[in-house]
Amino acid sequence: MDIYRQVGDRLGEANTLAEFGNLHFAQGEYSQALDF
Questions:
Q1: How far is residue 5's CA from residue 34's CA, in Å, rounded to a whole number?
Q2: Radius of gyration (Cα) for the chain, nearest Å?
Q3: In 6-28, which positions are buried (b, 16+ CB within 10 angstroms) versus exposed (e)?
Q4: pLDDT in tens, 1-36
Q5: By the 8 A CB rule, do 17 and 25 touch?
Q6: What is the pLDDT, as a whole number, of residue 33?
Q7: Domain ranges of the chain
Q8: What's the pLDDT at 34?
Q9: pTM over 0.90
Q10: Which residue, 14, 16, 11, 36, is CA-closest to 25?
């Protein structure tokens, strides 16, 4: 994440955050998934 932010890669940052959300959702952690 930090590297994406340092180089200004907004798409890479967005994709990473979306994947974090998907992981939480898949584990049934729905409230945490909404944070992403």
A1: 21
A2: 11
A3: eeeeeeebeeeeeeebeebeeee
A4: 889 999 999 999 999 999 999 999 999 999 988 887
A5: no
A6: 86
A7: 2-34
A8: 85
A9: no
A10: 36
Query: Distance between CA 4 and CA 8 in Å, rounded?
Result: 6
DSSP string of 1-36?
Answer: -HHHHHHT-HHHHHHHHHHHHHHHHHTT-HHHHHT-
Structure tokens at 13: 């940052």
CB 2: neighbour CB atoms within 10 A? Answer: 7
Residue 32 is encoded by which pair of tokens? 């945490």
Q: Which two tokens stand for residue 9?
A: 């890669």
